[in-house]
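## tool: complex_structure
## caller: assistant
## args:
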Amino acid sequence: QKEVEQNSGPLSVPEGAIASLNCTYSDRVSQSFFWYRQYSGKSPELIMSIYSNGDKEDGRFTAQLNKASQYVSLLIRDSQPSDSATYLCAVNVYKDSNYQLIWGAGTKLIIKP
Amino acid sequence: KAGVTQTPRYLIKTRGQQVTLSCSPISGHRSVSWYQQTPGQGLQFLFEYFSETQRNKGNFPGRFSGRQFSNSRSEMNVSTLELGDSALYLCASSPWVDTEAFFGQGTRLTVV
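## result:
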């Protein structure tokens, strides 16, 4: 089992709809969770961080964390074509006596006008 | 506040040569991580430095090495370049360990 898993997509969502991106992780003691957006040919940029169970909202973005079920999700409301990108989930995992940031392979999101 | 700066942005090298890439983190950030990304691939972790010490290392051959200086600036070196080393190399800085990482624009290395 991979430490951090994401559906590679592509996930196609109509403009104006809600895009839902999911990420599961294997380490039960993980405490820090991050969502990044990466446009083609560019570097990843941080969208949200979440540390506690529940929802965290920032503008059109909502991160949801459920530690019992070991998943973290990102909702994008009122999706825009400019949201088309690859979304990366990153989780701090305890490994080799250290916490390391482990990355999912990313989900490609396509917003259709 | 200036972001993470990577130099050079683009580089073309010949097989067998070596290359050094540089990363200046955000002021005050003490952790620097390096990643390799090839087309269609996710981020492959190379190594992480904190306070001049390597904390973590990914599964890359010994040809890949790095270091961090007292001002938190970091360099990575790849010796005996291979065609497969062609990739986007990304540096990310964090204020501390286990906190958000902020990426530079990357160095695109092409090995011919």
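## assistant note: Chain A touches chain B through 23 residues (CB under 8 Å). Chain A has a mean pLDDT of 94. Handing back to user.
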